[in-house]
UniProtKB/TrEMBL annotation:
It is found in: Cell projection, Kinocilium; Cytoplasm, Cytoskeleton, Flagellum axoneme. Keywords: Cell projection, Cilium, Cilium biogenesis/degradation, Cytoplasm, Cytoskeleton, Flagellum. InterPro entries: RSP9. Its main location: other. Coiled coil: none annotated. Residues 177-191 have a biased composition (Acidic residues). Residues 129-200 are annotated as: Disordered. Residues 132-145, 158-176 have a biased composition (Basic and acidic residues). This is Radial spoke head protein 9 homolog. One of its GO terms (biological process) is motile cilium assembly. Belongs to the flagellar radial spoke RSP9 family.
Amino acid sequence: MEGNVALMMEILGPSGIVIPTEQRAALRRSLAVKKRDARLRAITLWGRLLTSTGRDYLLARGCNGISPSTKHFDTHYYYSQDGVVWMDLQAPSEEIRQASRSIRGCFTGEPSHIFSVELPAVPYSQNLEAGESERTDSVEKRAEGESQNQGEAESQEGAERTEVKAEEADPEIEIRQDDEEDMNEDAEDGGDNDKSKVRSGFRTVDVRELERLATFMHEVDHDCGVVPKGFLIYNSKKELVSNVNFPGIKFPTFLDSYVHLFQSYEESPLSDDVKGSWSLEEVPFEGVILRSLWWPGYVFYYTENSKDFGSFYLGMGEKNMDLPFMI
């Protein structure tokens, strides 16, 4: 799973995948040094993230073992802005991931930049449960009140008629019984409105750019992360290892020939994805190139002669949420 950077750039160059010459010259050595220092089994160049300031991020992924059956992925993410020094990206918490998914706009290129994100004060599922229980209680109370009022309606009619006559005789009476009931109902409605304001409250979560960057790489790996079917096999520890007898892909132009590495592997072919979410291009005498429409910028290639493959991301780091309306 350790790709050849020079070969990958040569194959994907016509597709617009490029890296500055000085960074490309330093990558081969710097990635080898990072692999040794971090004690990784494999490390590969993952992509290049474009930023609004021009200080783009070079991204890499290291791996020590993958076991989809137990959902254990011993992978590590790294970033660099010069192609020489590689820094670790720490795995963010679930709250930070949720906040990162709601951020829109370009990355700034400043690792210390902080995004302020508004999230519900209470998790969405708890809001739903609380709302359902309150609505149920209010419906029950209203039903009880209606049954009681229906039984008392006849007795109140006589009292109201007496009150009307008394008002005509004594104009100083200003408040009637039904007016008091209306005032009480208004007070209850006001209390309900106060509760709704509490339920719709928000809290601010600060997300560092590096946390958003780690979340972005994890999301792309989960949604894409393509490998040829049969290239990896399970060993005795139920870990995925390279198949030394990999025969190649028999039908490279079929989506069934490719699977998601970070999902269920053998049970997650690309043909099961949303129809139209992948673009497949056949390059004569070379191989095929796959492009993700969910994540514009993600490209996967496979060469038929050498059976070599790899993937690269070059883009702004935003998911195409309009895809369902485009296909």
